[in-house]
Structures are given as structure tokens and as C-alpha cells.
Design brief:
Six copies of one chain form a homohexamer. Chain A is α/β, with parallel strands linked by helices and 253 residues long. Helices cover 39% and strands 23% of the residues of chain A. In chain A, strands 5-6-8-9-10-7 form a six-stranded mixed beta sheet. The first copy, chain A, has a five-stranded mixed beta sheet with strand order 1-4-3-2-11. In chain A, helix 3 runs parallel beside helix 4 and helix 6 packs across helix 10. The longest helix of chain A has 19 residues. Chain A is elongated. Chain A starts with a helix and ends in a 7-residue tail after the last strand. The model of chain A has no long low-confidence stretch (mean pLDDT 97). Chains in contact: A-B, A-F, B-C, C-D, D-E, E-F. At the E-F interface, strand 7 and helix 9 of E face strand 7 and helix 9 of F.
């Protein structure tokens, strides 16, 4: 298969258009899509959250010549080529990055983050229509401690911080995969008792606590790798003639 | 005592000039100083990391009419007055914020963060002369696990995340109180094996791990309240005729 | 009554929406609305063109805990709180500012400025529909000297300057309360023989005179306090259970 | 004489360098210098505060082919040529504008404004060395009313407004020709009891009155034409072989 | 005839509106229209690509008091008046510039450039409707050498450069009068084998050659004077009572 | 040899510092240096003016794994990797670009351009000291036609345009390799009779002709490849153990 056919399958599950729609909605930035093409046939695909040296070595060892990352392998525009990016290109490996579109997809990262925490009946915070969008609000009935322990068990990480009244009964959670929680999101999902996200800034946590809320700050990697693996499995099924493997970066969990 | 005399004592320990010098050095922003004055005598002073509703109530209950915060009570310029800030002003309480100058002071927050972790022989990363500046590099001989447990014991918080190879022997730590760790800081303190800071972004952690380093991400509050309390004790001694009390915000630890 | 009920009455006569509409029309700036709230009941209201020390003292003496100003008590965003603003907040007094919306209201400042000068049949220059908008053009039949003397008598001030041919017969006046006269306004109301406004720049006066027009430059305060008092009287009637008093600043006339 | 020789004489009394120095000091803008040259001999020179149609006609009638204005005949850069500027060029008349340099000159406009009001012993507010600079502070002993009447008599205009306590005894005046009074100037000349300038904005007058000061707001033209005529007389003497005449614009007084 | 009647005739053939439409389409800049008016009757008109000293002298010698240029006589806004522009104004000669509108007109410069090269059946690249717009694509059947020689013969210039495979058979040409060829235009007219334009940058030529295309870079003057003369002839016919002459600048060919 | 040793040799002849110095002098932009590194030994080096597909194929065929270009292979920062750049990286070939530093070097491109045209006694226009800098002025005694024919013979191209009086005697030439001639350069080298450069804009040619000057506009490639080949020969000698070959792009001449 050629890279364009592969890309069609990737796009079918998480259309690139979702990234453009979400950028427009929040006046944001992304660089998803084919970042480096491959001329010949795709012999195998590695999926990974980030393009790293170990990930490229893993692709070479597995005979793959395409890496699909979640975080754009080039984010801010660059003036020279080095590190894992150069290693990747020197090895003739192509790169596709699927970022905000996978965050927002119908069965994307944000959907799976909420679902794993028990959120079957989800409301979408930044709603792009058709079940797509960023941020989820959903019902639970638990203490923060229960939710923290659930997170540790399901997402296989101990990198979890709790802020707020530990005895508070949580009825509604608002979750945002990656680093998407700011004051604006707290306002948009003000019905929640608990906010879950990553890389949360001090003044944002304080803002939530001043309003009687709690915050669960989890590692960025753990909040996204779970859903990105679901995406991988979904695409793998569509491309069942192509070797698809997932690269784990356990030290980032 | 009048507010200007109080301010002199505060400034003696952590001169406002340090904030201006550090802003110039990193092309940064701060809003330290007297943010709201008091006409009469200062009857008592509350020290707190942040201006919150509970903190203002605490000041009223303790008969204090001045609050000294670490984080500026007004950061981005404002167009109306509400929340804890209005409550504070409505109660006739003045506000002084001492931020980057306390971070950088000779015996400031960064100094005490490093010292508590065993860093007696500190090198300053952003050096403002005379033992002042931001960021510290120092020698240790421990595993990350030891360091994590030390942090939990000394700083009285469980909100600590570990990234990188858990078995790595750590010889040098670079610590930055608050949210001061970015790619530039990793480069400036490239001799460190472990970086300690707060609110660290995913790509910064990844950058460190790609270079074989480890990262300890601790809660912002815990990384600063420890040193700010030392500042409080230092100032309290100088103002021994004035009632000085410390306000704890345990839910942010 | 609570502040929100008071604000409803203020807004009914001069809807805040007019400020937003006018800002959009001229790509301008304003900061009208509730700038500092009050938790308890409103015991009395002072109306004043500007927030000054004397005005706050007047409010305290009259047992009022709300001041409604015309000019925004905070205009450019601020980083600390001092002067009359701090005195006001320290005294537990709330602040509402009603600026461009009162300029443009159906029976607002600009309407009353023109009406007092004999302009019953007014054309609106910046027309926001429904009889609202900024700037008025209307018919008269007088010499400039007559108009100047009228102004002095009606608006109770001697702070009036005359530019242009003193013998000219005036058939049409264009008036703009406050400092709203620039080259653009002269063009938009080019049928006028005489322009009346405040704080007019030299090159704007010259531009009018080069086209054979005359200019009456009156004190900013006098051009607005007249109409703002009409607004006060209008609102006072609606709030007849609340003590409403007007604060005069005679030295600014 | 050629235009360059004329310019040398103009520059000797009020060096263009002063304009550049003052622009740099206040981060300001000016467009002084030769704005349109003349190829042949200069047959006569008209001096005027502003380039107007009547001024060009006056030059033609007087056989002059050079106009020296105070305010730049082109201020903001232009994309087409019309009005008095085109009339001037079509008549083969050259243009020199001498603005901030004449304001700031040793015996410039600001110097003569202060001197005429009795300010022999002047302090310069924006000091460019050698007795040059903008703004003057000087001693008097009079009521505002006396000063107002003096102004009316000396500067031959009734366009004068008074703000503040009319009974106040004035010991020190700060004067700024043209529209140069803002909050910053009040602070720099805070020892003054009375500020004199033109086109003063409402909030600047208010700022002065809040600090117990008085303000005399005079017409821009009257505050400058007096000193510019002194400049004219000074230059005329140096160019005693060239016909130099002054154009008055009485309607702007 | 007055200048406004002349302008109507000029505008009828190449409506100013086309300049505004094209500026909006490409987010571009122009300064077409009457740049300096004439009060009396127009005695004669000189048409020229650019306003130069020689062109003004030519107008004087021919008793003309209006010059119609293609390139705006004032492009970037100006702060003083000198050179040919001053000479022109000093001689009482008015200026009209007709730039992007003549480029884009139905029978404008771009139309005639393509037509002279055999392009009867033209496709418009930037299509402004009604046969107007910028850039033309058309069919030919020739070698580059033939086309180059054609250009030299028809446009009377030897200032022609050829880039690319000299033996290539050309089936389609894309032409852009003046300096309008950039990477974007190559993409928009990607069906062409040969691009013709002026002042082409090195990286643009390289971009075309990398895609197997050829480039003919001709002098800016020659690519436009041909079509501007057609415009002149067209207007001259409409103004058959007014003396219309064309000024050639042979050294720019 | 490793890439760093190769770079040292390249830098010795044309120090990167010259690019930074010249950027600072003219407030310009460049992206010279190692743009993509090579891990192993350098087996051979191709020198070329630009990175093109044919150039990469040439490198592969010649067993080279480093390409040294004059024009930066990445100029504006990029967000994806394609075309010749990707082909180059996929083939494991490194990239060094040496741009403004080779233009300005002591025996750099500008030096050789002038020398070939007979300019032994050169004055540097943008002088960076030590015989380095951009732009040269030098003496000749010839007609433009002679100079044009010289250029055609020496630089092996017919892509040359002549503007101005063809009969003029040329005593002084100012030459600027690449596209470096603008109005500012004409002013800085106003003693020249003839300006030689590439990609010259219409209004710049016109500006020169209005001042009685002539202009020779040559193809960008021809004005630089001559001097870049001299740089290649110079470096080749220093690296006599490494295979160095030059790639010609004849269609750009």
C-alpha cells in the first residue's frame, strides 16, 4: 500500500478536518497530517505518542517505514533537521501526525478517557457536531480517592496528583485529555465537581478550588496513550494486510 | 507601624530590585510591590502564597489589615474588581506581593528548596550576583525513589510524579521553584541527572528523558510554601512588635 | 435593593448594549458596567461624572454605598489600586460606570446637549437605530455670539472658546458631547455651520475653519454634566425607594 | 539667496537637531525641515503657524516664494496632494516647517510663553541642555484671575478657560506651549500650583484638580503664535536683504 | 474639459473599481486615481509608464497640464515632495495614476501582452469577472527560441532572459505583466509549460525549473508599455477634442 | 573525516560570523550553517548553488554524503519535509548552507564578481572589516556594450539586460552579487556610472536612470556560481583527501 491509502484509513477514523474545525473554534494551532512522505510501499507502521530516538529504532527493528505519532513530529516550524526527526528521515521512514483530530474524534482520545472513568453518558464541552469534540462532562458517584485509585489501575500509572477537599463526594467529572484545562474550560464545564487533565497550572488549580471544586492532575502521557492505543487498534483492523505495531514509552507514563 | 516601614523590612530580606533584575535578564513579567496601601497603622500581617477568600477571612479573624502574598494578587492588569481582591479591599486590608524577588533572594524560595533536598553547595543557574538568582544545581548521591520519598517527608505532600529510569543513580539535581522548567533551563543546567520543578509541560519532560535525564514534577504549592514560610519567619523576627501569622492552604499542597 | 436590581434600572434607561454597539461601529473602547459589586443592600446612590476623593467622601456623608459615574472609574486596565478607587473600595462602596451608553441613549447626554441648544428636530450622526446614537445635527438661526451666550447661561459655565468668523450666521449646528470631534466627524456632518464639542485639537479646529465653518469649544464637564443629571433624574424616578443624590464638581465646570 | 542659505539662518536660531533630540527623549514624532524645495532664488518669505489657503494667497500677493510654517505642512505621510499644499506647490512656493525645534529653542516658543507671563527665572522640564528644551516652571505671585487677565491682554485672545479653585494663590506656574500637557508632565512639574497649556484632555485637568492644582487652558494658536513671531523677528534680522512677512490667522486666536 | 470629465473617460476603459477588487482578492496594495488635481481646463494629456523628469519636460513642451501614469506617481506615502513630482506640481500639471485597474481591464495590459504572443483564447488566472483580471494562460505551439524572438520583434526590446530546457516544445504559456510571478502564480497556472513575466526572483525561476517548466524573464517596461499604449489609444479616441500624446522612455525598454 | 572537521574547513574560508555580522548591519535574515548533520564519515562532498533533485541524484551517483549549497536549503522555517530536501535526507546525505558569509568573504562571491570584471582596486560598500563585506565599487574605462560582452564571455551566459544610455562611457562600476541592489545601495555607491546585479526591480532601475546612471541586470545564477566555484576550489584544496565535486545547473545560467 502507498502512504496515501494508509492516510485515507487514518483519516477515516479521525478526519483531519476535525483538527481544522477545532483550531478555528478555539483560535488554536496544530500541525497534523503527512509531515514526511514515502515514495515506495509502506511495509509496516509504528504508532507512538511521540517521535523519539527509541521509537525510530523500534520502527527499524520491526521493518516499518512509517511512524504515526499523536503529537506533531514538527510543531513550531524548524530551520534545521536533527535528533529523532533526522534519524527517521535518514532511515527512509515517513511521518504522519494525527493530533487534535484524534483528540476530538467520535471514538477518539477524549472519548476513551471519559469512558474508562465510567462516563457512558458524555456531554461534549467543545462540540464539533456528530459526537466529535474536545472535553467531556459525565456523571459518577464516588469519592476522589476512589477515582484516583481507578485512574491508577486503569491507566497503569502512579503519576497522579489530587487537589481539593479529599472527602468531597463527586457527582460530575469534567475531563480534558492532554494539557487542555484552563480557566475558560472550568467556566464552560462549571457543573463539574472534579476536573481531570494534565500539566495544569497553579493558578488554574487555585481557580477551581476557590469555587469549591477538586482537581485530579494526571501525567500527560497516561491521559492520552490509552485512547491513542484504541485509535491504533481501530486503524489496524482496517489495514489488516499491513503490519501495525504500537511503541510504548513506559518512562513517560 | 505604617505600611512603608513594613515594606522596608520585607524589601530588606528580598529586595524588589531582584524582581526587576530577573525580569530584565529573562525578558519576563512580574507585578510585585505594594498593590493596595493602608492609610492607618498596620495592626497585623498575614503571609500567604495566594490571595484567596479563606485567606482574607483568616486575616479578619486575626485582626490583621495587611496581607503579604507570594503570587501577585493582581497579575494581568484588570478592568474590574471582584472575588477575594474586592473582599480584601472592602475589609480595609492592604496587599503587598513579593514574587520573583523572594524566588531569587539570597535565602529565598529557590535556596530553601535546594537546601532542604541536601543541596548545601549550590550553583545558581540564573545568577544575579551576591548569592541571589533563580534555579539551583547541587550534588546528591541517591536513587530517584529516595529523593521522591525525601520530598514527600520534608514538604508534607504526596503530589509528586516521577518520570524516567527509576533505577538511575542521581549525582546532580537541578531544581526550579514554581513552574520555571523549560527546554532552556534543561540546557543551562545540562550537568544535572534529575530536574525538579512544577507544572512541567509534556514536551519538556520528553526533552529531558530523550537526553537520559529524570524528572520529578511536584505540586507548585509545595515547592514554594516551604521557602515562603522561611521568608515569613525571617521577616517576623525583624517586625517583632507586629503580629505576623501564616495562612496555610492545605488543599493546594 | 441589591446591586443587580439597581443595575437593571440603570440599564433600562441607557442599555449597556449601546456601548458595545457604538464601540463596534467606531472600533472604539469603553469599560462600562459594574466595576465593583456590593454584597448587601444598596442604601443610597451617588451619581457623579467622575470618581474623585470628594465624591467618595460625599457618598460616605450621605450614607450611600454605590457610586454611579459617567466616566469609567477604571479606564486603562490597572496593576494596583490607589487614590479615590481604593478609598471607595475600602469604604465598602460599589461602582457602576455608564459611559458610551449614556452618551448614545435615546434621551442621553448628546440628546440633551442638542435639545438645550434648541435642537428639537435632531439628526443623529452615528445612528444606532431607535433614536439612539452619537452626535446631533440640528437647525438654528443665530449668530455665534448668541449661541455662546446661550451656552454660558444654560450650562452655567464661562469656559467657552470661539473660533472662526464671529459675524457668520449659523443655520445648522453639529454637537458632540465630550471629546468626540475629529476630522471624520466634520466630514460626516459637513452640512453644519458650527461645531460644538470639547477638548478639540488645533488641527481639527483649523480643518473646520479652512472649510468656512465655526467652532465652539466648551469645557468637557459642562458638555456632559447637564445630560448626565437628566439621566440621574430619570433613574431616580424609577428607584423612588432608594436615596439618589447628585455630586457636583463645580471646579471642573 | 537660495533656499539652503535661508534654511541655514532658520536652523541657526532653532537647530533641527533639537527636534530630533526631543523626539528621541520622549519617543515622539515630528516632520520638520525642507518639505518642498525651490530651484531659483528666494524672493520673499512668509512665516505662519499653519499652511492654509489664505496663507498661500498672502504669499502670492506679497511676491514670496517660500513659506515657513510652525506646524508641519505634511504631518502624517500622504498618498495624494490637495488643498493648500497643492495650491502652494502649483504656485512654485517652497515649504519649510520648523516645529519641535522652535518649541524647544533657547529663545523659542516655550521660552517666550513663560517670559511673557513673568517667568524670568525659568526651570526647563524636558531639558535638552544649553537652555533648550520643552516646558517651563517659574515663580509668580498672583491669583488665577490676575493670570487669566494677563494672558488675555498679552496674547490678545479671550479664548481662555479656568479650572480649579478660583481663590487659590499661585506661586509657581508650569507652562507647555501647544498641546503638551498630560499626566506625565504634571508629575514632572509637580511643584507648580497652576498648569498652562492647550487642547487639554478632561482626565488630565481632573488629575491636576484631584491634587489641588489649577489649570489654565488657552487656545493652541495663542499659546504659540506669540513665540513664533519672536522667532520670525529674530530670523528676519539675520536675513535683512530678504523680504520677510508674517501671516496672521486671527480667527484661530 | 475639466479633470473629472477626463477621469470619467479613463475610468470607463479601466474602472478604478478593478484595482480595489484585485487588491481585496490578493490582499494587495495600490494607489491609483487622481493624485494631484487641476483647477482649470485640461489643455492636453501626456500618457507615460512612469513619472520622470523627462516626462514632465515633455508635457511642458507639448502644452499639456495632465500626466496619466501607469505606475503610481506616489506609491509608499511621502513626508516631503521632491524630484519629478515637485517639478510636475510646480508646473501646475495634474497627475492621474491608473495601475492595477489597467493591468486587469478587459482590454488591459495583461490582455494585450497575451494577445500579442498569439493568445487569442485566454484563460484568466485571477478572474474578476466580465473578462477582467490578472494573468493569462493560452495555447501556442512553438519552441522557446521562437517565442523569445517573437517577443524581441513585437515588443522592440532585446532585454529578454531564457531559463530552462531550450529544446522544450511549448504548448501553453502563462503570462503576468510587470513583476507578478511568484510561487503561488506557478501553482495557479500549473498547466503552463512556459511562464513569462518581469523582475522574477531566483527562487521562483528555480521552483518552475524543478517542475520541468521554462521561464522567459522580460524587462518590466517592455511587458507593460505595449498594453499601456493600447489603453492610451483607446482613451484618446474617446477624448478626441483633447490633445493626447504618449511619452516613451526608450532606455527602460 | 567527520562533518565538524569539514565544516571547520568551510568556515575557515568563509566564517559563519560574517553572515551574523552582515545580518546585524542590514537588519537582515539568513539561515547558514549545518542544516542536517551526518553521523558517520563524510565520503564525498557536492557543492551546488541550490539544493535540487538533480543535485541530490548527482551526489548519490558520485558517492557523496554531504551537499554544500550557497542558498540555504531551508530558508523560511518549514512545517513538513518534501521535495529535494526529503530525497536528500532519505539518502542519508547531510546539508551545509553557506550563504551571506560566502557573499561577503575576503575572497568570496562579491570579490570574484568584481575581479572578473576588471575590478582589482575594490572599495567595499557594506564593509565588515578585514577585506570582507558586501558590494564592490571599482574603476573601469569602457562602454556598456564592452562590459556586457565581457560578462557574456566570462560568465558564460546570454541572460543579460542593459538599461540606460548605451553610449555612455563607464568609469566606475558598483556590483552586488545576487539580488542585492535597491535604492539604498544606489545611494551608498552613488559615485558609480553603472550598477550590476540580479532580479532588479523596475523602480530601482528607474531610480538609477533618473540619476543618469546605467544598469546591467544579469541572471542571479551567473552572478553567483562563478564566485561559488572559486570558493569550492579553495575549500577542495584544504580537503585534499576528500572527494569534492561541483554540480552545475546549466539551465539556470
Amino acid at each position: 500500500m502507498k502512504i496515501n491509502e494508509i492516510f485515507s484509513a487514518l483519516d477515516e477514523v479521525a478526519p483531519l478536518k476535525l483538527s481544522h474545525d477545532f483550531q478555528k473554534m478555539i483560535d488554536g494551532y496544530d500541525n497534523s497530517g503527512i509531515l514526511a512522505s514515502v515514495d515506495g510501499d509502506i511495509k509496516g507502521i509504528v504508532f507512538a505518542l511521540d517521535l523519539t530516538d527509541a521509537c525510530v529504532e523500534f520502527a527499524i527493528k520491526n521493518g516499518c517505514n512509517l511512524i504515526v505519532t499523536h503529537h506533531p513530529a514538527i510543531y513550531a516550524p524548524i530551520k534545521s533537521i536533527d535528533g529523532a526527526l533526522r534519524k527517521c528521515l535518514n532511515s527512509g521512514i515517513g511521518i504522519v501526525s494525527m493530533h487534535l483530530n484524534v483528540d476530538c474524534a467520535k471514538e477518539g482520545i477524549d472519548y476513551h478517557l471519559a469512558k474508562a472513568l465510567g462516563g457512558d453518558n458524555q456531554k461534549i464541552v467543545f462540540d464539533l457536531d456528530c459526537g466529535c469534540g474536545y472535553g467531556r462532562v459525565f456523571d459518577v458517584d464516588a469519592t476522589i480517592n476512589d477515582i484516583k485509585n481507578n485512574y491508577i489501575n486503569i491507566f497503569k500509572t502512579e503519576n497522579v496528583m489530587v487537589f481539593g477537599d479529599r472527602d468531597k463526594k463527586i457527582k460530575k467529572i469534567a475531563s480534558f485529555c492532554g494539557s487542555g484545562l484552563d480557566v475558560k474550560e472550568i467556566e464552560l464545564a462549571s457543573e463539574a465537581d472534579l476536573y481531570i487533565s494534565s500539566d495544569i497550572k497553579h493558578h488554574v488549580i487555585l481557580y477551581a478550588l476557590e469555587r469549591g471544586k477538586c482537581v485530579l492532575c494526571v501525567s500527560h502521557y497516561s491521559s492520552e496513550v490509552f485512547g491513542f492505543k484504541k485509535y491504533f487498534e481501530n486503524v489496524k483492523e482496517k489495514l489488516n494486510d499491513t503490519n501495525c505495531v504500537f511503541f510504548e514509552n513506559a518512562q513517560m507514563l
